[in-house]
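Protein modeling request. Please complete all fields; requests missing the sequence field cannot be processed.
Requester role: graduate student
Desired output: 3D structure, token encoding
Chains: 1
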Amino acid sequence: RAAPPARARLARLSARPARAVRGLALLAGVGALVLLPLAAGPFLAHVLVLVGLYMLMGLGLNLEVGYAGLLDLGFVAFFAIGAYTVGLLTSTGGLAVLDLSFWVAVPIAVAIALAAGVILGIPVLRIRGDYLAIATLGFGEIIRLLVLSDFLRPWLGGSQGVLGIKKPFFLGIELATPEQIFYLTLAASGLVAFVAARLRDSRLGRAWMALREDEDVAEAMGIDLVNVKLLAYGLGASFAGVSGAIFAVMVGSVFPHSFQLLISINVLALIIVGGMGSTPGVMVGALFLVGLPELLREFADFRFLIYGAALVLMMQLRPEGLWPAAAIRRELHAPEELDPVQRAI
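Delivered output (345 residues):
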């Protein structure tokens, strides 16, 4: 109720005071996030880390689904690729490939996840709609079965996974506790959110949105669909690779059973709940879909009942999402804004 008057007062300010108010609000929000895990304890910090990991994946999948309209149900594969790459490069166990630090392994994991996204995009360039979802679902299952296979067991560990993953060090401090991992996740989420916001407002972002609305018209307007689709898959996969890298060092081990299809479905759901094509919506959706069930653990089996009822109510009351993009909001609510004569026409 207080938001519209506050926005109206902010709009009446001149440019300089308005920037100052926005800057102070941003600093206050960042300060609250920095102090939150210290005040709340390790359990809430662990929940916030999980929220941040899903937020990173959601920002990546939002490039594909929210901006470009490319439905991907195998997105967990890129999360697994990032986790396994960092695990193998930083592990001290028998499967160690190179004894690298976390900060050196992360760019390698991002590059490999990006390459995997491009490889996925090549065979599905001409597939649309439900068929695209099935094809990407198959890619996710292929990655899961490969890491479980006996053929790759000497290199990936099979069902036993990769153990002994080292914790990252920053300025001589080991980032081992949930509070410390939270700050790493917060920094990564902020950087990825900034990149996603810049991509949205770039020429590439406009091309993705044109692709989402109509592929044939976008191609007729001179958009190279091949490059645009491959960039969506590759950049989205790279964001998931960052999330997988942080997950590997947080847990200290990587197992194939940690990368189930349900993760892809949850990431897609948080985008829909938060708001398709909206970067703030991804953050709100991650808090709602990941943070809420974890905070309701004291209700045992009833927590999913409460969680499901909240989802149903939210879809009934706000089908556009909790924080939708302006274009999506206009599409869903344009008929309501017309007078009765215009609606009849």
